[in-house]
Amino acid sequence: MFDPKKIRNIAIIAHIDHGKTTLLDNLLKQSHIFRENEKIPERVMDSYDQERERGITIFAKHTSVYYHDYKINIIDTPGHADFSGEVERVLGMVNCVLLLIDAQEGPMPQTRFVLSAALKMGLRPILVLNKIDRPHADPDRTLDQAFDLFMELGANDEQLDFPYIYASGSQGFAIRNLKDEHKDLFPLFDLILEACPPPPGSLELPFLMQAATLAYDDYLGRLATGRILEGKISKGATVTCVDRNGNHTQHRITKIEGHLGLKKVELEDAGAGDIVSLAGVTEIDIGDTLCSSDQIVQLPPITLAEPTVSIDITINTSPMVGREGKHVTMNKLRERLFKEKRANISLKIEDIEGRDDAIRVCGRGELHLAVLIEAMRRESYELSFSKPIVITKVVDGTVMEPMERVHVEVPEQFSGMVIDDLLRRKGEMRSLSTSEHGLTTLQFLVPTRGLMGYRNDFLTRTSGLGILTSIFESFAPWKGDIAGRLRGVLIANSLGKANGYALFNLQDRGTLFVTSGDEVYEGMIVGEHSRENDLIVNATKAKQLTNVRASGSDENIILTPKRKFTLEQAIDYIDDDELVEVTPHSIRMRKLYLLEIDRKRHGRTK
Question: What is the mean pLDDT of the chain?
Answer without folding.
Answer: 85
